[in-house]
Specification:
It is a single chain. This protein is α/β, with parallel strands linked by helices. The chain has three domains: about 270 residues, TIM Barrel (Alpha-Beta Barrel), CATH 3.20.20.70; about 70 residues, no CATH class; about 130 residues, Alpha-isopropylmalate synthase LeuA, regulatory domain (Double Stranded RNA Binding Domain). The protein is about 40% helix and about 20% strand. The protein has an eight-stranded parallel barrel, surrounded by ten helices. A three-stranded antiparallel sheet has the order 11-12-13, covered by helices on one side. Strands 14-15-16 form a three-stranded antiparallel sheet. Helix 9 links the parallel strand 7 and strand 8. The longest helix has 23 residues.
Length: about 525
């Protein structure tokens, strides 16, 4: 056995799904399993057997999938107190789930035995032993999740160790130490894990929660102490403050500790997996996530950018492509010439060895930001700005005019919004009308409707996000408004910005940049 191998156990579909706002559809759960199997995760926990029909239907469906790497695990608990394991519905449901691996949790903190289960210490040990033995007799690989282990160990080490020994003596394939309340410190995790391995032996795992912001650090410390099985969730989803994020933990173990978690070459898919799972639960991706977030390798300060240009190791702890990410150069009033040049290269404009127009672009950038523009989330608008400064901009259409009408016929009816727009493309003039859910949506539909005859690919563009920021609220209704729009065409996502003291005009400006960026990019591909 590879001594540097760490077995990765994903619990997103069960522990992660207990997080606020997280819900997987039946199809989404199967999609999740397929993607993690392709990624090379060793174990995928599918749900709580016997707790609901949705999870049991999942176990039936997943058995029909031909998985290449992953084993699916059903989750459950020890038998109930003073009940035969064969008569315990939840224990028998674990067998009915039909998974090759089963994970059960049991009490390892005496306070829980006395105050929650309200049974004796002896009965608790029997509950652990009986359930593990029953599952082993039915041919299952069995993991014992030692719930609240670290709190239990600090309270009564002898009791906590005895609970693990009950599981091991019954044939458990691994004992997983759980920091269920998420309050244990890294140095404690290391010391206790080391003591457990010395006392109990066998395969020891770690399962940490993030209530103290220490989940990943605690998992790392347990691995350093000798644990070889680690549990976590994609993007750190989970109850309360979440679980240890596998998107941070896996790269840390592989790149910092030299451990083997994934099949060779798969780490490059880490960011893609993170984004894929966010899409499955309809969550907006957290740009600040370590390793996989969009901001993880983003540079803004001029001195930083200048240093990265010369040697990326100066401000990047790893090359971003190792985890499937990429470097982003941010531009703002803090930018220097290096920011502008590298950003132009990143956007596909100019060459590294050329400084043509850098001073003019930087001066225009700072002038625009003084007026309220912000290009950190508006790469497409910045690209158009560069083209305009360098006098390389091509206008694909000209606005002849637009009108927006909001009609509320009576108090019980919703508003009806209609936008009429007239644009000129060459010698042709197109006049269209469209309705939408509000003035910006109506303008968006009308503009795309007007241009589709000339540029059919515009039909693929969808407005994904719309954000409004009031820049000087002290001016009340006369305040300057900044509008940020995120658009996509199924292949790429881009951001644009508009600024005006009129919300509709600011929105229109951002919409025009969005469409022009799409048309410019299509022309480049020809």
């Amino acid at each position: 056995m590879n001594k540097d191998k760490v077995w990765v156990y994903d619990t997103t579909l069960r522990d992660g799904a207990q997080g606020e706002g997280i819900s997987f559809s039946a199809a989404g759960k199967l999609n999740f399993v397929k993607r993690l199997d392709e990624f090379g995760i060793d174990y995928i926990e599918g749900g709580f057997a016997g707790s609901n029909q949705k999870d049991m239907d999942f176990f039936a469906a997943v058995k029909k999938m031909e998985l290449k790497h992953s084993k699916v695990a059903a989750f459950g608990s020890t038998r109930r107190a003073n009940k035969r394991v064969q008569d315990d519905m939840f224990s028998t449901s674990l067998i009915k789930a039909g998974t090759p691996t089963v994970t059960i949790f049991g009490k390892t903190w005496k306070m829980h035995v006395e105050e929650v289960l309200r049974t004796s210490v002896e009965e608790n040990m029997a509950m652990i032993y009986d359930t593990v033995a029953y599952l082993k007799d039915n041919g299952r690989e069995v993991f014992f999740d030692a719930e609240h282990f670290f709190d239990g160990y600090k309270d009564d080490p002898e009791f906590a160790i005895k609970a693990l020994e009950s599981a091991v003596s019954a044939g458990a394939d691994a004992c997983v130490l759980c920091d269920t309340n998420g309050g244990t410190m890294p140095h404690e995790i290391y010391e206790i894990t080391e003591s457990v391995i010395s006392a109990v032996g066998g395969v020891i795992g770690i399962h940490t929660h993030n209530d103290s912001g220490m989940a990943v650090a605690n998992a790392v410390e347990s691995i350093r102490a000798g644990a070889t099985h680690v549990q976590g969730t994609i993007n750190g989803y989970g109850e309360r403050c979440g679980n240890s994020s596998l998107c941070t933990l896996i790269p840390t173990l592989e790149l910092k500790l030299g451990k083997s978690c994934l099949p060779k070459g798969k780490l490059k898919e880490m960011r893609d997996v993170s984004l894929h799972v966010d899409d499955l639960v309809n969550f907006r991706h957290d740009s600040k996530l370590p390793y996989v977030g969009k901001s993880a390798f983003a540079h803004k300060g001029g001195a930083h950018v200048n240093a990265v240009k010369k040697n990326s190791h100066t401000f990047e702890h790893i090359p971003p492509d190792l985890v499937g990410n990429e470097r982003h150069i941010l531009v703002s009033e803090l930018s220097g010439g290096s920011n502008v040049l590298l950003k132009a290269v990143e956007l596909g404009i100019g060459r590294k060895e050329s400084e043509e127009g850098a001073k003019e672009i930087l001066a225009s950038l700072k002038e625009m930001e003084a007026k309220g523009y912000s290009f950190e989330s508006a790469d497409a608008s910045f690209k158009i700005l560069i083209q305009k400064v360098l006098k390389k901009h091509k206008s694909f259409f000209d606005l002849e005019g637009f009108r927006v009408i909001i009609d509320k016929r009576n108090k019980d009816e919703s508003c009806v919004t209609q936008a009429a727009i007239k644009v000129r493309v060459g010698d042709d003039v197109e006049h269209t009308v469209a309705e939408g859910d509000g003035p910006v949506d109506a303008l968006n539909h009308a503009l795309r409707k007007a241009l589709t005859r000339f540029y059919p690919s515009i039909a693929d563009v969808a407005l994904r996000d719309f954000r409004v920021r009031i820049l000087d609220p002290q001016e009340a209704t006369a305040a300057i408004t900044q509008v940020l729009i995120e658009s996509g065409d199924g292949q790429e996502v881009w951001g644009t910005v508009g600024v005006s003291d009129n919300l509709i005009e600011a929105s229109w400006e951002a919409l025009v940049d969005s469409v022009e960026y799409k048309l410019f990019r299509d022309e480049q591909k020809k």
